[in-house]
UniProtKB/TrEMBL annotation:
This is guanylate kinase. PANTHER family: GUANYLATE KINASE, GUANYLATE KINASE-RELATED. The lineage of its organism: Eukaryota, Viridiplantae, Streptophyta, Embryophyta, Tracheophyta. The keyword Mitochondrion does not apply. Keywords: ATP-binding, Kinase, Nucleotide-binding, Transferase.
Length: 401
């Protein structure tokens, strides 16, 4: 963690910290490169709202960045430590077990991309999710190839394991489609404004309509402890590949263009004009799917059941693992008083308050080498365990108890 320059600390002490001269409350400062990130905010009685200000050291200016992702809700205090100079780990004091570890991305690939689009400083929040670090699954392929059918089969067989990322779209609902379940159906002007406000992980114009994955859509699934499935086009897959959301990318091919046309027509959901447009676009999508280098796996959906079995196999669901339905990950029970430090790729949270010294375990270790993904949404794979600093010694942190 970088040290805050002396004048910033002085300013903070005098409450001239970019939050306004009347700002009170608890803040942390973390310096990365030329910038000092001041995280915290005003105290309202005993709670603290979590805001971000940046002090640009070369120019001496305070910057209010665009903040992407859902910010943490109020807490009783904060500790911060920088990780790999691209994100800051925040430990919230006095929060619930599933809400105490957060990441503020300040220079990740996603944030750098957003800075270019927005033309100003951008930071992105991501909540730490403990437990299984299975990657989200991105499924792409031409219209009518069977993506929706395969995803429905997966969700039906493994309801507690997978959650669907509900996209936004400007296209009209089909007769069986429900708002908020299949898509969030929206107006173009509203969606364009939300895209401008940085609410989307990715978006694309497909077959003449706007489609996009909101950051919230991915957050909702991860918070439920489920593995996120995204049904998005090749352009969207390319954007996700460039984001911090580490995913598995699967492209579904039809056995032939004739069969694709048959499926599209027999589905009976599109007008003739729409069918022709989708078939024209299918050729380009197939070329990109096969040659873009985005996709980790290409599956042929000829016989539906065989294709489904192949999909399950590459997701590791064909054997005993398939029988194990996963439960939601547990959180971390932290006391209000603690201090945070970094040692190699481990974060040590010292809970050594007088009362807790009597408890058998007073150090909590977060192994950050297992982290997956990141903003926007959730950072999965927090590996957390407790040790006793007195009997295990600090050297014991390599040995989870
Ligand atoms: N980029 C992007 N594409 C999406 C999203 N949601 C759906 N799509 C893609 O938009 C295309 C059209 O979807 P839809 O209108 O539901 O038609 P269908 O593919 O024929 O069922 C498909 O290629 C979807 O994968 C999204 O959030 N982002
Ligand atoms: N392997 C398959 N063989 C025959 N029909 C299929 C197969 N897979 C899907 N279908 C049918 O093709 C149509 C299009 O499938 P759908 O899942 O809606 O495609 P997508 O979501 O890729 O647009 C649906 O009527 C579906 O029942």
């Amino acid at each position: 963690m970088g040290e805050a320059p002396a004048f910033v600390v002085d300013n903070l002490l005098q409450n001239q910290d970019g939050f306004g001269s009347k700002s009170k409350g608890c803040k942390t400062t973390t310096t990365i490169g030329d910038k000092t990130f001041v995280i915290g905010g005003e105290n309202d009685e005993s709670t603290l709202s979590v805001e971000v200000q940046i002090f640009d050291n070369p120019t001496g200016n305070w910057v209010t960045p665009i903040v992407l992702g859902t910010k943490p809700n109020t807490c009783k205090g904060l500790s911060a430590v920088s990780l790999n100079d691209d994100r800051i780990l925040i430990v919230k004091k006095g929060s619930t077990p599933d809400d105490c570890i957060w990441f503020l991305e300040v220079d990740t690939q996603f944030v750098r991309g957003q800075k270019k689009i927005q033309g100003t400083d951008v930071v992105a929040w991501s909540k730490g999710a403990r437990g299984y670090a299975e990657k989200p699954v991105v499924i792409s392929g031409p219209s009518g190839v069977g993506k929706g059918t395969l995803i429905s089969m997966l969700m039906k067989e493994f309801p507690s394991m997978f959650g669907f990322s509900v996209s936004h779209t400007t296209r009209a609902p089909r007769c069986m489609e429900k708002d908020g379940v299949h898509y969030h159906f929206t107006e173009r002007s509203i969606m364009e404004k939300e895209i401008k406000d940085g609410k989307f992980l990715e978006y694309a114009s497909v077959h003449g309509n706007l489609y996009g994955t909101s950051i919230e859509a991915v957050e909702v699934v991860t918070d439920a402890g489920k593995r996120c499935i995204l049904d998005i086009d090749v352009q969207g897959a390319r954007s996700v590949k460039a984001s911090s959301l580490e995913a598995i990318f699967i492209f579904i091919c039809p056995p032939s263009m004739e069969e694709l046309e048959t499926r599209l027509r027999s589905r009976g959901t599109e007008t003739e004009e729409q069918i022709l447009k989708r078939l024209r676009n299918a050729k380009t999508e197939m070329e990109q799917g096969n040659s873009s280098g985005i996709f980790d796996h290409i599956l042929y959906n000829d016989n539906l059941n065989e294709c489904y079995e192949s999909l399950k196999k590459l997701l590791g669901l064909d054997g005993a693992a398939a029988a194990t339905q996963r439960s939601a990950p547990q959180g971390i029970d932290l006391p209000t008083d603690h201090s945070v430090s970094k040692m190699d790729n481990k974060i040590i949270i010292n809970c050594g308050t007088p009362e807790l010294k009597k408890a058998s375990k007073n150090l909590i270790v977060l192994d950050v080498s297992s982290l997956k993904g990141g903003a926007p949404g959730r950072t999965r794979g927090l590996d957390v365990y407790a040790i006793d600093s007195f009997s295990d010694g600090l050297n014991g942190i390599n040995q989870p108890s």
